[in-house]
Automatic annotation (TrEMBL):
PANTHER family: RNA POLYMERASE ECF-TYPE SIGMA FACTO, RNA POLYMERASE SIGMA-70 FACTOR ECF SUBFAMILY. InterPro entries: RNA_pol_sigma-70-like (IPR039425), RNA_pol_sigma-70_dom (IPR014284), RNA_pol_sigma70_bacteroid (IPR014327), RNA_pol_sigma70_r2 (IPR007627), RNA_pol_sigma70_r4_t2 (IPR013249), RNA_pol_sigma_r2 (IPR013325), RNA_pol_sigma_r3/r4-like (IPR013324), WH-like_DNA-bd_sf (IPR036388). GO terms for biological process: DNA-templated transcription initiation. This is RNA polymerase sigma-70 factor (ECF subfamily). Residues 27-92 form the RNA polymerase sigma-70 region domain. Belongs to the sigma-70 factor family. ECF subfamily. Residues 126-175 form the RNA polymerase sigma factor 70 region 4 type domain. It comes from the Bacteria. The keyword Transcription applies. One of its GO terms (molecular function) is sigma factor activity. Keywords: Sigma factor, Transcription, Transcription regulation.
Length: 190
């Protein structure tokens, strides 16, 4: 190790590019302390600062053949640490934002997807039950509820009294209520 202390950064990178592990160890020992402090000052977390150094020097060894193109090693290392710190900070912010939005969603108690599914299922059940009504009752009920016609308008259209229309709609509602209550007993999720 003492053998490489006198070498410049440029000489060390040339040796590292030739797979010299001792030169790599010298470069690591030369910069690990100041780079750690640099990362720690920005993050305030010892473990994350250590992780950044580990990742930086691992990448440096893996890409050692590319070191020859680096003009100033110290600048490259400081910039690499800074970039990695910025990535960690950005990741933390994204993570916090996600956790906050998830917390708000849970706190609001509104599970729109689940509610929408139940709403669609209930609508489907109601439509099936309406389809099972007697033909005339079904026709009157649909004119009342789907077409939004008044009892008088339905009576005029079907040539029946408005009292008959009212009675048919009331009977249809009574039948539907009973059938849906029975379904709710067996399927309490509604």
């Amino acid at each position: 190790m003492a053998l490489f202390r006198q070498h410049t950064d440029r000489e060390l990178t040339n040796l590292i590019a030739e797979d010299n592990e001792a030169a790599f160890a010298e470069l690591y020992n030369r910069y690990k302390g100041v780079l750690y402090l640099h990362a720690y000052r920005m993050l305030g977390d010892e473990d994350e600062a250590k992780d950044i150094l580990q990742e930086l020097f691992t990448t440096l060894w893996v890409r050692r053949k590319e070191l020859i193109s680096i003009s100033t090693v110290s600048s490259y290392l400081y910039q690499s640490v800074r970039n990695r710190v910025m990535d960690v900070i950005a990741h933390k912010k994204a993570e916090e934002k996600y956790i906050d939005s998830l917390s708000q969603f849970i706190a609001s108690g509104e599970y729109m997807t689940d509610q929408k599914v139940r709403e669609n299922e209930l609508q489907s059940i109601i439509e099936c039950e309406v389809a099972r009504l007697p033909a005339k009752m079904k026709e009157i009920f649909e004119l009342s509820r789907k077409e939004n016609l008044s009892y008088r308008e339905i009576a005029d259209e079907l040539n029946i009294s408005d009292k008959t229309v009212k009675k048919q709609v009331n009977n249809a509602l009574k039948i539907l209520r009973q059938r849906i209550e029975i379904i709710a007993v067996y399927f309490p999720f509604f």
